[in-house]
Amino acid sequence: MTANPVTDAASPPVVDRQTWLRARDELLAREKAHTREGDAIAAARRRLPMTLVPPVAVQGPGGRTPLVDVFEGRSLLIAYFHMWHDGAPFEGQCEGCTFSTCHVQLLDYLHARDVTYAVFCQGPYPDSAAFARFMGYPFPWYSARDAEPALVDGRDFGFIACYLRDGDQVYETYWTTGRGVEALMTSYHALDLTVYGRQEAWEDSPAGWPRVNGHPWRLDGRPTAQWSRLPQD
Fold first, then answer.
1. Lower CB count within 10 Å: N or C terminus of the chain?
2. Is the dihedral of CA 12, 17, 23, 27 positive or negative?
3. What is the DSSP string of the chain?
4. pLDDT of residue 117
5. Is the pTM of this model over 0.90?
6. Backbone angles phi, psi at 44, to 5 degrees
């Protein structure tokens, strides 16, 4: 596996600590405003109406599984809809969906808030479940291949949907795609704190800042997270 070194990259100008603290305080004011706006958006999200999901089932380890059973008795469900390329080997599966889902390793805090997290894959259950086992995922994995149109509802896989259960009735309360799924990507949030950021071509960075060579979510032909799952020689 070949990493992307940053040792020869440019770096910020060096100033005395007081000058640095003043610049940091200016940015902090913007960060606090951004946080408050994020809180306001989250408050609006909590006030969205919801829509009833007709009875629908996915395929899981026990076969046909009604959506209401995916909640595992909890009231809330977050589902990531994972793309799948039929017939492709594990290294050929979607690097973006791998990047999104591989970050979800600890479920305790979600469960403590009465939330279940699960993945609904576009592929057939036997093939995609083998992929999930290879990746070592700790969360429930299902196939949503036969769940059109009520569950997927014409959307392209690669999105997050949120649900509320009221008895045996299930309601969709929110969904997001594109950069909205960065909610799962803790590596991106951490990289944004560093001086070089995500090191991707689209970012507004100074001249001389490092850039990822090749695909941002692949290294040497595999989704990056797969390398640590391979048998070690």
1. C
2. positive
3. ------TTS--PPP--HHHHHHHHHHHHHHHHHHHHHHHHHHHHHTT---EEEPS-EEEETTEEEEHHHHTTT-SEEEEEEE---TT--GGGS-HHHHHHHTT----HHHHHTTEEEEEEESS-HHHHHHHHHHHT--S-EEE-TT-TTTTTTTPPSSEEEEEEEETTEEEEEEEE-GGGGGGG-HHHHHHTTSTTTT--TTS---TT----SS-TTEETTEEGGGGGGSPP-
4. 98
5. yes
6. -65, -35
Tokens of 55: 């009875």
CATH for 52-182 (3.20.20.70, 3.40.50.11440, 3.40.30.10, 3.90.1150.10): 3.40.30.10
pLDDT band for position 26 (cuts 50, 70, 90): very high
Residues 157-203 pLDDT 10s: 999 999 999 999 999 999 999 999 999 999 999 999 999 999 999 99
Question: Is residue 116 within 8 Å of 72, Cβ to Cβ?
Answer: yes
Q: Residue 150: its pLDDT value, please?
A: 87
Compute the distance between CA of residue 86 and CA of residue 191 in angstroms, rounded to an integer: 33
CA distance 91 to 70: 28
Burial 132-145 (b: 16+ CB within 10 A, else e): beebebebbbbbbb
Which pLDDT tens digit goes with each residue over 125-158? 999 999 999 999 999 999 999 997 889 999 999 9
Q: Where do the domains of the chain lie?
A: 52-182
